[in-house]
């Protein structure tokens, strides 16, 4: 750590905080990881600057200027830290290992790390192995790495597809001592290494089985041997697909015995010390396939508006801080949802039992009563701990049908006017949402439907109804009330934050939209309402899908933090997750804080540092879950498309690059690549300014949003990748057996 600023570095303003550029320059030029202590010492800051400095660092981290580098430490975001965990993905032409960072949230592809060979006497690094490496930047996106520590606390694993050896495999001609029982095709699309399973190490695995393997010592030139340690199931069974992501991303899916025992010992609550809501006709509204019901709603007319109640399962009653259940819930962070299964945050005895608001059964809850005026303003929010009895378990489709004039027997049995009051309160809340100017992206969500045999029956859009929007607005109102309650009592709150897009991303978005005749206001004055105005302009046009995707890509990812940064997309200054404690640990922390704030449980409430640490942890688990769900959908789509290789389908262009055209298939909503090699022979030029790809000798031009007819050329189910061709080009001979 230098004692003075490097030569040429701007000096701080006397007696105050450095500006953003001064702070960035200091962190970039200093040695090692930088935190608030080092910054305060360098710029002579006192305790009175603590809060302002913390806020500046947070904002710079959120807008991409800085990146986290350990607990409360930062680095300039376009460089990797001095040391970090990397994973070996393959070898270069000299046989030396190539690696990539395990954690990478930056724009574009992760940097490449060229690892030095291991010291004499130490085993070479195997593909898939993780090490802590000391890094040295050697160029844009390129680093040298030296192993500091091999991570041997758990055996390295490779998830992939086992194929028995046949005469077409190159290793079939290897000398007898190196000839394997089969090959292993890694599920990680970044992996470059060729894996083999030696004779006797295949665990009697049949051909075309998804497996987990662990590397063995290298036994021959260019060969990476591994032993099969677990069979996940046949590739042809769609129910195996979700387990690939679970295994690859290390998602915990087996509960410890102590946590299961605590869940099994749970019992129902009594009315003692609770507000009795059992006469209030609260109803749950969920998807038809939902099994856990953690929120219930009610509304009745009050003046020119409505009195609303949102009741949430009292998970905090059962999951006590520091217990085995609590430790496991925090480790998981959230539930993970796949087409064939759910990896729950809590054991089934709680998630589908005592914490599920089943109709006609007494359940503990934490509730909030709120008044909503005709203009959507919320007032008189009051939290309490109650006992309730759900009047009905409703589905979105049921509620929508009733609103459209076709109520079924379940809804007809509810008190008169209940549904009208729910939709009336929703209209009030929607008025306030429109006045705030929120970002309402319209990105069709795809769902995979399986038949009873585990085969893919269909991949179809998930229809979004007004009944979905009703529940969403009730939950947003309750979440806002939770944040305001904690702020009003001066208690730390784990906010759900969504920082505005960075100036660089907005400028890139502006340039792209400009080529489409769509104008954005200057970056410094842009609000969510301005982006939503663009969305309204293109609604019901051919550009709608692309513009929604472009605006989504420009956004920062939402996260959890005790810093009140606000929520850009919802245009809210304070927002905290409160409504889903069965499936999100963040909501459970909010419940615990509210119970202390309202005097329903003794303190202390979770502190700022505890929430900061928890926020970082559960933001990571949330992103891990999103990655697992996204990659699994891609594998389901590729599996479905394998049986349709050669078929011509509709697609539209999502983006262009020098090596091909990225498209979205209309049938599945998933990405597929039309490689440059599949285009007609010509000299192709990618113009970044106009966002076009055009040929020199023909009038053929490709641009984002353009509709295409494409042929499915290749689909790799294990990796979830799809390659395309144009319908009038000859078929390729590159199709894989996977």
UniProtKB/TrEMBL annotation:
Its EC number is 3.1.13.1. It is found in: Cytoplasm. PROSITE patterns: RIBONUCLEASE_II, S1. Pfam families: RNB, S1. SUPFAM superfamilies: Nucleic acid-binding proteins. It catalyses: Exonucleolytic cleavage in the 3'- to 5'-direction to yield nucleoside 5'-phosphates. It comes from the Bacteria. Keywords: Cytoplasm, Exonuclease, Hydrolase, Nuclease, RNA-binding. InterPro entries: NA-bd_OB-fold, RNase_II/R, RNase_II/R_CS, RNase_II/RNase_R, RNase_R, RNR_Ribonuclease, S1_domain. SMART domains: RNB. Residues 646-727 form the S1 motif domain. It is an enzyme of class 3 (hydrolase). HAMAP family: RNase_R (MF_01895). 3'-5' exoribonuclease that releases 5'-nucleoside monophosphates and is involved in maturation of structured RNAs. Belongs to the RNR ribonuclease family. RNase R subfamily. This is Ribonuclease R. The gene is rnr.
């Amino acid at each position: 750590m230098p004692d003075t600023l490097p030569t040429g570095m701007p000096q701080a303003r006397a007696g105050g905080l450095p500006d953003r550029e001064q702070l960035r320059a200091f962190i970039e030029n200093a040695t090692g990881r930088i935190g608030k202590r080092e910054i305060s010492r360098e710029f002579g800051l006192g305790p009175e600057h603590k809060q302002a400095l913390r806020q500046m660092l947070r904002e710079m981290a959120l807008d991409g200027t800085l990146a986290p580098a350990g607990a409360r430490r930062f680095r300039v975001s376009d460089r990797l830290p001095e040391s970090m965990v990397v994973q070996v993905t393959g070898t270069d032409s000299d046989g030396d290992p190539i690696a990539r960072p395990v954690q990478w949230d930056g724009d574009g592809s992760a940097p490449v790390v060229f690892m030095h060979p291991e010291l004499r006497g130490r085993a070479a690094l195997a593909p898939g192995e993780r090490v802590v490496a000391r890094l040295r930047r050697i160029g844009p996106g390129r680093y040298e790495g030296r192993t500091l520590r091999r991570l041997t606390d758990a055996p390295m694993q490779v998830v992939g597809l086992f194929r028995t050896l046949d005469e077409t495999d190159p290793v079939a001609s290897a000398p007898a001592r190196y000839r394997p029982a089969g090959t292993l095709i890694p599920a990680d699309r970044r992996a470059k290494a060729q894996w083999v399973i030696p004779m006797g190490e295949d665990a009697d695995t049949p051909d075309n089985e998804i497996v987990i393997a662990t590397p063995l010592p290298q036994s021959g030139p260019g060969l990476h041997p591994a032993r099969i340690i677990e069979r996940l199931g046949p590739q042809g069974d769609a129910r195996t697909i979700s387990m690939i992501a679970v295994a690859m991303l290390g998602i915990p899916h087996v509960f410890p015995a102590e946590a299961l025992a605590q869940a099994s010992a749970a019992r129902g609550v009594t009315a003692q010390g609770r507000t009795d809501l059992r006469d209030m006709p609260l109803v749950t509204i969920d998807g038809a396939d939902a099994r856990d019901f953690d929120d219930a709603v009610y509304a009745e007319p009050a003046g020119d508006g409505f009195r609303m109640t949102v009741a949430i399962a009292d998970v905090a009653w059962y999951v006590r801080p520091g217990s085995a259940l609590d430790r496991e819930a925090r480790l998981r962070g959230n539930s993970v949802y796949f087409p064939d299964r759910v990896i729950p945050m809590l054991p089934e005895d709680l998630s589908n039992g005592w914490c599920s608001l089943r109709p006609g059964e007494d359940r503990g809850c934490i509730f909030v009563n709120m008044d909503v005026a005709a203009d959507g303003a919320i007032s008189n929010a009051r939290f309490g701990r109650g006992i309730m009895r759900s009047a009905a378990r409703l589905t979105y489709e049921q509620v929508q049908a009733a609103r459209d004039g076709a109520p079924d027997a379940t809804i007809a049995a509810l008190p008169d006017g209940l549904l009208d009051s729910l939709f009336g309160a929703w209209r009030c809340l929607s008025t306030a949402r429109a006045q705030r100017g929120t970002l309402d992206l319209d990105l069709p969500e795809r769902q995979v439907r399986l038949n009873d045999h585990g085969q893919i029956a269909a991949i179809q859009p998930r229809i979004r109804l007004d009944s979905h929007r009703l529940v969403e607005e009730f939950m947003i109102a309750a979440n806002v009330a939770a944040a305001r309650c904690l702020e009003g009592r001066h208690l730390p709150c784990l906010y759900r934050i969504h920082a505005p897009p960075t100036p660089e991303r907005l400028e890139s978005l502006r340039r792209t939209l400009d080529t489409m005749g769509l104008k954005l206001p200057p970056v410094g004055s842009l609000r969510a309402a301005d982006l939503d105005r663009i969305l309204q302009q293109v609604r019901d046009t051919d550009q709608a899908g692309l513009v929604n995707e472009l605006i989504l890509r420009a956004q920062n990812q939402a996260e959890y933090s005790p810093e009140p940064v606000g929520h850009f997309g919802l245009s809210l200054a304070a927002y905290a997750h409160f409504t889903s404690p069965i499936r999100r640990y963040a909501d459970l922390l909010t419940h615990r804080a509210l119970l202390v704030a309202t005097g329903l449980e003794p303190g202390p409430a979770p502190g700022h540092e505890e929430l900061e640490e928890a926020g970082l942890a559960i933001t990571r688990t949330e992103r891990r879950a999103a990655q697992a769900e996204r990659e699994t959908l891609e594998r389901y789509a590729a599996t479905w498309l394998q049986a349709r290789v050669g078929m011509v389908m509709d697609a539209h262009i999502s983006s262009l690059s020098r090596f091909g055209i990225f498209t979205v298939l209309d049938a599945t909503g998933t990405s597929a690549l039309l490689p440059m090699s599949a285009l007609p022979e010509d000299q192709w030029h990618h113009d970044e300014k106009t966002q076009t790809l055009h040929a020199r000798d023909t009038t053929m031009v490709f641009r984002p949003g353009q509709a295409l007819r494409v042929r499915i050329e290749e689909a790799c189910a294990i990796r979830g990748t799809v390659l395309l061709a144009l319908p009038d080009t000859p078929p390729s001979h590159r199709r894989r057996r996977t």
